Each structure stands twice: as structure tokens, then as C-alpha cells.
Amino acid sequence: MKWKYESPRKAYGETLVALGREREDIVVLDADLSTSTKTAMFGKEFPDRFFNVGLQEQNMMGIAAGLARSGKTVFASSFAVFATGRAYDQVRQSIAYPKLNVNIVATHGGVTVGEDGASHQMIEDIGLMCGLPNMRVIVPVDANEVRRVIRFVASQNGPFYVRLTRPALPLITSPEDEFVFGKAMLMRDGEDVAIIATGIEVSYALLAAEQLHKEGISAAVINMSTIKPIDKEIIVKYARKTGGIVTVEDHNIYNGLGSRVAEVLVEHYPARMLRVGMPDKFGRSGRWDELLAYYGMDDAGIIKAVKKLMEVKK
Amino acid sequence: MSEISSEKIRKLKLIANEIREWTIKMTYAAKSGHPGGSLSAAEILAVLYFHEMKVDPQNPEWEDRDRFVLSKGHASPAYYAALALRGFFPTDELMNFRKLSSFLQGHPSLMVPGVDMCTGSLGQGLSAAIGMALAAKLDKKSYRVYALLGDGEIEEGNIWEAAMTAATRKLDNLVAIIDRNMIQLDDFTDRMVVLDPLEEKWNAFGWRVLSINGHDIVQIIRALNEARRSVSQPTVIIAHTVKGKGVSYMENTAKYHGKPPQNEEEYNTAIKEIEDERRGI
Questions:
Q1: Does A142 share its domain with A23?
Q2: Which one of 3.40.50.970, 3.30.450.20, 3.40.50.1000, 3.40.50.720 gives the CATH number of domain B6-280?
Q3: What is the pLDDT of residues B49-94, one digit of tens each?
Q4: Segments forming the whole domain that contains residue A131
Q5: What CATH number is given to the structural domain containing A135?
Q6: B3 pLDDT higher than 80
Q7: Which residues of A touch B118 (CB under 8 A)?
Q8: What is the chain A residue with the closest CA to B159?
Q9: For position A1, what pLDDT does the model report?
Q10: How much is the pLDDT for B1?
Q11: pLDDT tens digits, residue range B95-133?
Q12: Which of the residues in chain A have pLDDT under 70?
């Protein structure tokens, strides 16, 4: 498949700038990673409304809470590992519990951080954020969806956790598509199995489905951008239709997309499923695409999982 | 101090005394809660809510109000008592502290009218106060922001992140008050972590430092006045206090940090001592 690629981080930075021009109440915080998270683009145009607090993720989340409590619409950014791990208690106590209007937009989620290695590859963040009452969790699939999601969260009362990844992503949705919060997007229909993927993994799921089609297996591909609240309807519908679900995520197989889907299936329509993701192991250094292959999270890994599922389904 | 009448001082002393009495009543009724660090902060809260701060109990979310963050959230009994006495909600509600039927949560929550920030996990309140002070500057508003910190609390690293940032941002509309009662949950602070020289530390972090007796109404008022004169610098008031102040068996001990009077005799003794004090005011 021929796709154009675009950086989700750059789309985030551009959208922040556009929002900053439209609305005075938008303020942005960062913790010394603004050139990576691209919040620096906002800071350049709106220096008075941009607070780069230095290496203080915990303090940043507390300040974000105070600004939100004073009527601001706040975006706070860092790498996923620091935004959700380092500052977890501040996010819990000062943002989620008082239900303040803070949008935590973290970049560098997952093992696809690459060469920096396990210390920077956050594979627990979706679990951490989904476990917080009042927190809603979105993983946009491409730069087009990033723009829609950032505009959506800016229009709502927070808190939200939006997870972005480092590499440029293929544009698999069009700029005209709509983002419906809490609703998944069917990317490709199929009869034999449904692959439910999120973020960077959706394009790999599409590649896998294309190859499976050539081998006579009809796989549906679902883009699950909203992880919390999850789209129960589509999960049940495709479990009923195909009888088998494979989930794919750049996250630990515990506490992420796979776990959320499993919860829905067990409660509403028990069906066979397999989870593709980090196998409860810390990552290691390497090129991001090499790492996806190494951990069985690329199209080849997904195909293997689908075939395994087809075997147990029989 | 010509601007503070002796009548005013007497009134504030009586309010501090009432806050103490409520602290004992509330924690005894709840069979839980934190009297020690509430009793040490009674005068500070009395001066803030009945002299210093611009608030409107009829309109707790008034945009131009001064903000207060009880960073040492466990002093909620004294805080709630101050809010109720100021008229944010009926004092009758205080007896339902920590009960399922009440909005008076164990630690400050936005469910409580007049509360500006959820606190309880120590070390975070000063950061929220910075956010509020930054918002005031952005919106060109003149409201001031106050945060009350425990001395044990400043062992948390987050406090020192906030301390550096408040000075960097030149937040002269921000006042931190440290309730320096020398005791934390387990022991005397200096047996846990050496905090002194506290004045020098805050000074080195870029703050204007004022050191006072935190039970002296006049000194508290003067320090808060002095803080208003600060330009381009946040102010920290180190309020030297006595843990458990006003109840003899609770004074200078860690035992009643998080424990109410243990029986009727202890309860009666506490109430009697506080009432005796009132007659002397």
C-alpha cells in the first residue's frame, strides 16, 4: 500500500498554534521537551501563554491544575513515560480527582521510541491513565486524526490523555473524516476475524489484512482511537460476526487495548481472542520498525497471530 | 501597628479559639482526623479568612477572589471550621466531617464550598497555587494566592521544584506559609530530615523570607502586609508554631498528628482547656 507519511507531533504543534490564534484561554505547558513534543511551535507564537517549566513534570502537572482551576484550557506535554509515570500522583490527585480542564498530550508512547531504549519506551501509560476515574484516553491513528482529536479535546472540559508516538505515521484517514469520541472506525470489513488495533499499529493491521486476503482469510480492521470509554458496540458486533478478535497495540499486553477489549468480550459476548503487543517485557534499543518486528508487532507478527487464532477457533 | 485595633486582634483570637474547639469536636465525632497540625494553624487560618483574604461566601467561585490552597491537606478540620465560620456553609455540617452523608471529605475536595484545590497527597499544593498566580498575571487580575504548607510536607521534592519555578516566574502575588510546628507523623522533623536552616534555604531558592511566631495575630498580619509590598518575588512566611497548640496533652508530640482525643476524659480536658483560654481572651 502506498501511503503518505506525516509526523503526528508536528500536526499537534500546528493545531495548538491554530487554537492559540482562535482562543485566548488556551495555555500550554512543557517540561524541557518542547522541541520534541512540538509545543515549542506554540511557545514561539504565544510566549506569554507558554510555560516551559524545565525538568519538573510533577510541578508541571500541579501548575496545569492551578491554571485550569482559574479558567484556562490547558495542554500539558512531555514524553509518555514522564507525563504519566513520573507525574502519576500529581495527575491523579491534582487533575483527575478535581476533574480539571487539563489535556495531557504525551508524545513518544510505546516501544517505537526506538534507540533511546526501555527507559524511554512507555508501555504502561494507557493502563495507568485508563485506571483513573474521570480520565478519558485517546490514541490518534495518524496526523489527520491528531488534528481532529486535539480540536475535540480543546472543545471539551478535560481531563483527557492523548497518546502520540514518535515516528511519522502513514496517513490512513482523510482530512474530511470525522472523529467521533468513543466510536471506533471500521477501516476494512471482513468475515473470518477482526483485528482491533490502535495508533501506530493500525497501518500494520491493514498490511496484514491485505496479505491475509491473498491467502484466503477475510480480516476486518478496526481503528480503536478512543480507548476509554471503549466502543463496546463494535467489539460485540465483530465478535458475533467473525467469532475471533486479535488486538494490536504498541503497549504492554497487560492493561492496554487488549485488556479493555477482553473485558468487553467477557462481559457481553465471550469469544476467542489473542493479544499482540509487548509481551510483559521492557523493550530495548533499536530502530523502531526493527523493534516492532523483533517483538512480533509488525504485519508479519499480526498475520501469525491471526493464523493461530484461526486454528483455535476451529 | 495603628491599623490593627485591639478589638480586631481580640476578634481574631476568638476565631482561632473557635477553630480549635471545632477541630476537637469534629475529630472526636469522626473518630479520626488530624488535630495536631490543625491546632498549630488556627491563628494563620483565622487571619487569612477573617482579615487578609478577599472572598465572598455567597459566591465561592467569584472570579476575583483571593485563592487559598491548603497544601497540608490533613489540616482539613481547622480549614473547614474557618470556612464554616466565615459563612461558606452552616457550622452544623462540621459535625458530619468524614461521614458518608457529608461533603466534608477527610482531605480538602472541590465538593466543599470555598475550597479552591483538592489536596491531601503532600507536596502538590504549591504547584497548583503557582498555576493560579500565573493565571492572575495572564488575566491582569489583582487577586492574591496563598498556600499553607506543613514543615514535614516540604520534605517532598515537588515543593522545591515549585519553589524554583515561583521565583523564576517572579510571582509576587504568591505567598507560601510554612506551619513550622517541628513535628510530622512519625517523629520530630529534624530526626527524620534536617530542614534547617530553613530561612536560608528559601532565600537561596529566590524567595523573600519572613520569620514569625505563627500564634501571634499581630505578627501574622504584619507579615502578610509585608508580603503585599513584595515586587517581582514570591514571599514565604515561616510561621513558628506549636504542634497541638491549645490542648496541653497534644502539644509538642507526634502522637496526636493523626489521632483524635482517645476517650471522653481526653475530649473533656481538651474542650475545657480551649474554653478556659477563651475566657482569658
A1: yes
A2: 3.40.50.970
A3: 999 999 999 999 999 999 999 999 999 999 999 999 999 999 999 9
A4: 5-170
A5: 3.40.50.970
A6: no
A7: 93-94, 97-98
A8: A59
A9: 77
A10: 47
A11: 999 999 999 999 999 999 999 999 999 999 999 999 999
A12: none
Shared-domain flag, residues A138 and A194:
no
Question: In chain B, what residues touch A56 (CB-CB under 8 Å)?
Answer: 161, 164-165
- Residue A71 corresponds to which amino acid? G
CB contact under 8 A, B132 and A70: yes
* Neighboring chain B residues of A66 at a CB cutoff of 8 Å: 69, 117, 127-135
- Please give the grid coordinates belonging to residue A314: 476451529
The confidence score (pLDDT) of residue B2 equals 53
Of A51, A69, A92, the CB nearest to B132: A69
* Nearest CA distance, A103 vs chain B (angstrom): 15
**Could you tell me how many CB contacts below 8 A there are between chain A and chain B?**
101
Q: Which residues of A touch B (CB under 8 A)?
A: 27, 48-49, 51, 53-54, 56, 58-72, 89-90, 92-94, 97-99
Given A170, A201, A233, the domain boundary residue is A170
Per-residue model confidence as pLDDT tens digits over B44-53: 999 999 999 9
Within a 10 A sphere around the Cβ of B204, how many other Cβ atoms? 12
3-state secondary structure of A104: strand
CA distance B154 to B176: 11
Residue A176 falls inside a structural domain = no
Answer whether residue A177 is part of any domain: no
Mean pLDDT score of chain A: 97
Delimit the domains of chain B by residue range: 6-280
Sign of CA dihedral B74, B77, B80, B82: negative
At A171-215, the pLDDT tens digits run 999 999 999 999 999 999 999 999 999 999 999 999 999 999 999
- CA A154 vs CA A76, A78, B234, B235: distances in Å: 12, 18, 32, 34
B68: which 3 cell numbers? 487559598
> How many domains, chain A?
2
Which of A54, A70, A94 has its CB closest to that of B124?
A94
Q: Look at residue B151 and tell me whether its pLDDT is greater than 50.
A: yes
Q: What does the block give as the cell for B141? A: 487580575
Does B236 score more than 60 pLDDT?
yes
Interface confidence, given as ipTM, is 0.95
* Degrees to nearest 5, angle at CA A93 with A89 and A96: 105
Question: Is residue B9 a contact partner of residue B243, using CB atoms and an 8 Å limit?
Answer: no
Chain A contacts of B135, Cβ < 8 Å? 66-67, 70-72
Instruction: Note whether B119 contacts A: Cβ–Cβ < 8 A.
Output: yes
Contacts of A54 in chain B (CB under 8 A): 164-165
Vertex A143: Cα angle to A138 and A144 (nearest 5)? 90
Question: Locate cell 516501544: which residue?
Answer: A111
| Residues linked to residue A75 through DSSP beta bridges, in sequence order | A28, A103
CB spacing of A71 vs B135 below 8 angstroms = yes
Rounded mean pLDDT, B213-219: 98
Catalytic residue among A14, A57, A124, A201: A57
B131 and A66 within 8 Å at the Cβ level: the answer is: yes
Contacts of B262 (CB under 8 A, 6+ apart): none
Question: What's residue A157's pLDDT?
Answer: 96
Q: Is the pLDDT of residue B229 over 50?
A: yes
